[in-house]
Amino acid sequence: MTGFLGYGAAPMATKVTMPQLGESVVEGTIGKWLVSVGQSVAKDEPLVEILTDKADSELPAPVAGVVTQLLAAEDDIIAVGDPICEIDETAQAGATAAAASEEAPAAPAAGSAAPTSPSVRKLAREQDVDLGGVQGSGEGGRIVHDDVMAAIGTSTGPERMATPPPPPPRPAAPAAIPQAPTPRPAQPPARATGPGGAFRLPPYIPKDGDEIVPFTRRRRIIADHMVYSKQTAPDVVTFAECDLHRTAVLRDQHKAHFKKEGVNLTYLAFAIAATARALREFPEINSRVLDDAFVKLAEVNVGIAVDTDEGLVVPVIRNTDDLTIRGVARAVADVAERARSGNLTPNDLSGKTFTISNPGRRGNLVGGAIISQPNVAILRLGTIKKRVVVIEHEGEDVMAIHPVMHMALTYDHRVVDGVHANGFLYRIAEILEYGDFEL
Questions:
Q1: pTM strictly above 0.70
Q2: Is-catalytic flag, 417?
């Protein structure tokens, strides 16, 4: 756990900073302080609960000493690397509590941007709100999300100058002799041109029976991630149909034996194994985009989307291409159970190079998924249905009933061309259709 900490300190005092809890995590929320100013703490004693969209973790003390400062309040969103508290290794317990209270700074007045969180500053930039004119309603005068939203439209920046008054009415023209109106061509409706265009959402008007459900922390971060992905990646979706007859025969032959070993042999395990092998053959799909380049990643780490009570999480199966079907099936069962019980670690949720989304037994025919950044592609599996297919038997075309699945690959066209995407998806279907697996 201490590997999550970064701290630089004055002599005998240690500043504890927001840890990096996962590869793509850039900030965390202070959930609940487990210590107070003036309290003695032992090394590795939990200091605070840190909440992210990936996992919730307790942050341990890097040293033994006395907590002299809490630099962030509960519900604050703090960037990775920013200080959240200070521990003095030589102070006396309780002696610093009164001093900290006396030295506590006064609440900032309107006109001060501190302390605001990174997400609040980002929102203010996006909405062109001058934080210098916003009165904070949070603890100690902090400017919070709702303060920025309330200030939208009242900022005095150049883009929000008051609308000039309309010109005075022109004098009425003298009455003219009525004439037949001249037909005018129909005018096309005004079109939106972006955020500042003609389109505006109608206001919400509450009605009896409506239920407003506030975004949870995880849901808000998921929403931000999805919007970022759609705005960043020019995504394209391609589809394939896969006959699972031979894979189904292989599964039926071995699932009872696997069950005795405590392993549930699912179709998902076969799909993951086929995908991992195809990723080795099409390395462009197993990559991520940099500022002016892209990197083909050495490891094949497949993330699988798991639905939990708090929303989707994507635990990672590391070195997936090195696993047999038995190894993949065990890994799927392990991470899915720990995801639903809330026992995933930050390491379980970091480092994925490709993502698979599985709809489960109550899925639909097929659907395109949004790419999980920083990956360049995501595979969405459709539901498996028995269908009538045409096969060749003894030189003749005959109809048969086989399990069939549709698949949708969403890929980032900045890196992945259609020929590679189509070849990759074709290869996955080919492996599944031939039942070509090592158990």
A1: no
A2: yes
